């Protein structure tokens, strides 16, 4: 997938030895800090220092980070030549995070990824509807949460998000038969050009002979949605190419419930905080019932995530929730499987 269809990605290389430039924009406090570190003044807006090792670069960055309130507001560049014809400009915060998380950044750029699959069942008849695809590093050297945290800090979330999507589509090849859905998370803010991005996603599906109808793209971080029109445009493009769409973690952002008719997702998933002990908590039961009524009116399937106990499962099934996912049903694994339900029909 072409990185140009995604926003916020630009390659940053931390050379073992090179030059570190900073453009202080006449900030006297930063200029005083650079003078303490013996940066050379190249022009009135450009200061530079050579570093012999990455440890030297870390020392400079650590000192600047300690002395300044917010280094994300300043720009800098790492380069091999003392005075290159042009500079690749990044915020000092991005340079700092890349330097101090170099191993993880290298995994994001060049690591080998796989998808773990967690089953999603139809609660009415206990048959498999599909699997959520969850990104993992193949050698399990880093937790997924750490991977995405560093990607966010280093401005590489777009790159990691696009890799996760392709790995998920590729990962179902020879594992899941046609008709079994793959739920794939995506982050709307990383998509700057919906038409180009989703066309390329469709092309990846064709490459691996995956039916678009078997792909469900699930909005990650629903609670952080800012630009609703942009989200609606993205979801429409997915649907135009024959794919399904879902909203994740509904309940954390209550305002999204008022906009369901406008967003028109095929599925919505309920955050596990509303599922845990739902069979014992009347407030959670009232919330789940109201969600289900709204979804049924709009012909949206409701997925309950985080089901860990039989009592939760039995209550949700009795209530009429359409789909379920969680450790009681099956844990994420490299191969499709279910653990908790003896009678689950796993036809894959």
Automatic annotation (TrEMBL):
InterPro entries: Cyclic-di-GMP_PDE-like, EAL_dom, EAL_sf. It comes from Metabacillus litoralis. This is EAL domain-containing protein. SMART domains: EAL (SM00052). Residues 97-346 form the EAL domain. Pfam families: EAL. It comes from the Bacteria. GO terms for molecular function: cyclic-guanylate-specific phosphodiesterase activity. Transmembrane segments: none annotated.
């Amino acid at each position: 997938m072409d990185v140009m269809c995604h926003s916020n990605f630009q390659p940053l290389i931390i050379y073992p030895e090179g030059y570190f430039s900073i453009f202080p924009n006449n900030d006297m406090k930063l200029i005083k800090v650079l003078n303490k570190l013996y940066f050379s003044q190249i022009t009135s807006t450009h200061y530079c220092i050579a570093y012999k090792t990455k440890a030297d670069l870390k020392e400079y960055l650590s000192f600047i980070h300690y002395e300044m309130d917010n280094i994300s507001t300043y720009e800098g560049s790492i380069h091999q030549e003392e005075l290159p014809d042009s500079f690749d400009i990044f915020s000092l915060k991005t340079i700092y995070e890349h330097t101090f998380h170099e191993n993880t950044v290298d995994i994001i750029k060049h690591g080998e990824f796989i998808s773990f699959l967690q089953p999603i069942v139809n609660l009415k008849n206990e048959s498999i509807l599909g699997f959520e695809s969850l990104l993992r590093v193949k050698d399990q050297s880093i937790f997924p949460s750490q991977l995405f945290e560093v990607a966010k800090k280093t401005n590489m979330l777009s790159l990691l998000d696009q890799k996760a999507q392709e790995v998920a589509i590729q990962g179902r090849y020879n594992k899941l038969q046609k008709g079994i859905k793959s739920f794939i998370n995506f982050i709307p803010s990383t998509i700057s050009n919906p038409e180009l991005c989703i066309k390329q996603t469709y092309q990846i599906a064709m490459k691996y002979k995956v039916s678009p109808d078997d792909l469900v793209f699930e909005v990650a971080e629903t609670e952080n949605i800012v630009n609703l029109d942009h989200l609606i445009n993205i979801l429409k493009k997915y649907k135009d190419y024959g794919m399904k769409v879902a909203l994740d973690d509904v309940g954390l952002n209550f305002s999204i419930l008022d906009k369901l008719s406008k967003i028109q997702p095929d599925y919505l998933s309920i955050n596990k905080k509303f599922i845990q002990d739902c069979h014992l908590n009347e407030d959670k039961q009232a919330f789940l019932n109201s969600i289900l009524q709204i979804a049924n009116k709009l012909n949206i399937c409701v997925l309950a995530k985080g089901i860990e106990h039989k009592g939760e499962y039995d209550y949700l099934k009795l209530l009429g929730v359409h789909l379920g996912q969680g450790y009681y049903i099956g844990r994420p694994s490299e191969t499709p499987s279910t653990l908790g339900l003896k009678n689950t029909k796993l036809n894959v």
